[in-house]
Amino acid sequence: MRGFSLDTRWLQVLRLSPAVATRFEAAPLEAGRVHSVFKRAVNLSWHDGGLLTLHAPGALAAPFAAALARMPAADAIHPGVSVGRRGAALVLGGFGVRWRGATLTNTAVREHPGAPAPALAVLMDECRGQSGRALWNPIGQRARSRLAEGLRRRHVETFIDGAFGLIGLGEGLTPAGDDCLVGALAVIQRFDRPWLAAHPEIQASVRQRAWTGTTAVAREFVVHALAGHFAESVVDLLEADSVEAARRGAARLLGVGATSGSDTLLGIRLALAALGSATGARSRTRVGERGARTRFPRSAAASVANPGG
After folding, report:
1. Residues 134 and 260 in one domain
2. Phi, psi (5° rounding) for residue 46?
């Protein structure tokens, strides 16, 4: 790996998460290779076995991403090119990437145990998008139904069965099923993290399946979701403190990719409905039918998980 030269073209990282900054700082001289190149993103196969993404300016589109001040021309970097570490910079092709001085951005969704915030109820009625077709075929419908049922009943095996059905379901860099699962996991990490913590077999099983059952990029999203880390758009939406903030967050998420944002939002809606149904059922058990209120009715959960039902 050659070092810097007079011809080195410099790229500055504008924002990244603390975890990505740590991975940059820990990089050895031979840090990895370019995995794939797109107009607005370059994916790197990192020395630790995972991926890192360099993308165009803006909010972090992935918890394993760093946003650059500008992107190199799409034909300037190619898959397979070596990525090296030289001091406080990376070298790939004729480019140097500096990360120190960038804004550190949180990608961890904050835990807020209990019923989902009332502001998010708007997602059930108003905020919908055109999600991937695979989620609506019989396999996709069954997987979503099982995931919702497992979450509603807090039944681990059913939830894992639904997750397995979603992993790798669909086409593209991040199949629709993986995006849907990531959305559901975001809701659980926000509002019911203790359930995941109490059942480490969920993380172990889903993580293992993601490593072998889907694309490298989708795997990273799922693995990070299991650890509670998401794209900025997902974090902002789930932490919305007003109806208007939730609407803005949903609109922003729906603008991600061809259907990725819609697929993620479908998973968010599915999990919100399932948690709302479960919360309502537990409330009725404690205080009886009178006085119990479900924020997201069971009918909403059924329609999201089984639209044909």
Report:
1. yes
2. -90, 160
